[in-house]
Amino acid sequence: MDILILFKALILGIIEGLTEFLPISSTGHLIVFGDLLNFHSNGKVFEIAIQLGAVLAVIFEYRQRFTHVITNLGRDKTVNRFVLNLAVAFVPAAVVGLLFSKQIKHYLFNPISVATMLIVGGLIILWVEKRQDAKTPEVLKVDDMRPIDALVVGCAQICALVPGTSRSGSTIMGGMIWGLERKVATEFSFFLAVPMMIAATGYDVLKHYKLFTAQDIGLIAVGFVAAFAAGLLAVKALLKFVACKNYVPFAYYRIVFGGFILLTWVMGWVNWNA
């Protein structure tokens, strides 16, 4: 297999793992860098594999929590409420995604749309963080969340169907606006990623399983491992970061990165597939 193709798979796997849990849009980065790297492998199959690698990083990091949930479901009120909250938060984006995913992918999955939403999302993060400084959070632990809190986060996640918005960014900012403490919103976003991404992966596998070929095994393996390792690093680092910092740096990154993409497009420096 071409070493250059494997290297591109490695780069995209790392990008997926690092960006999936940061509020900077993993899908947006994959669209931009996939276009920039001219990566034309079995795109959907590869994307499925690296997304699964990223979500397994969360499961591994919180393995004790998930084991506790599985073994105590139905017997522990706190566990039951936690699972109910995940189910409630899962539904809104899942329903809207099933209804409108084709239209969204047709019209919005391009670097220019991504760049625009990166900037818009960055400005929203700046506003939310400024607002957060003047407001005392009401929910200080994930286990204190109510179904209504989860529903608000789930509705916020609908915005993430637009590439460049960011699933984690939407859920974290939505939670913070509603009254969740910054770390609580971040952790719940991690937990919500598990059922959301497993469901999306399962759906895509059923829909695209005929595209899987033996030739893709090498690319899938490289991208999967890279996404898992980078995802694990991102989760650990982000939890430490939000314990003493806010999301303002990510907002500025989004604005600068999105602005750079638009500048290269307007000046004709890069021929984006817009």
Descriptive terms for the model:
76% helix; single chain; 11 helices; mainly alpha; 274 residues
Give me a quick take on this structure.
With 274 residues, the chain is an all-alpha fold. It has helices at residues 3-19, 26-36, 43-61, 63-72, 77-108, 111-133, 147-157, 167-178, 182-208, 217-242, 248-267.
Mean pLDDT: 91
Largest sheet: none
Number of spatially distinct domains: 1
Total beta strands? 0
Radius of gyration (Å): 18 Å
Q: Percent helix among the residues?
A: over 70%
Report strand %.
Answer: under 5%
Number of helical segments with 4 or more residues: 11
Q: Could you tell me how far the N terminus lies from the C terminus, measured between alpha carbons in angstroms? A: 30 Å
Element string (H = helix, E = strand): HHHHHHHHHHH
* General form: globular
List unreliable stretches of 5+ residues: none
Determine the structural class based on helices, strands and strand pairing. Answer: mainly alpha
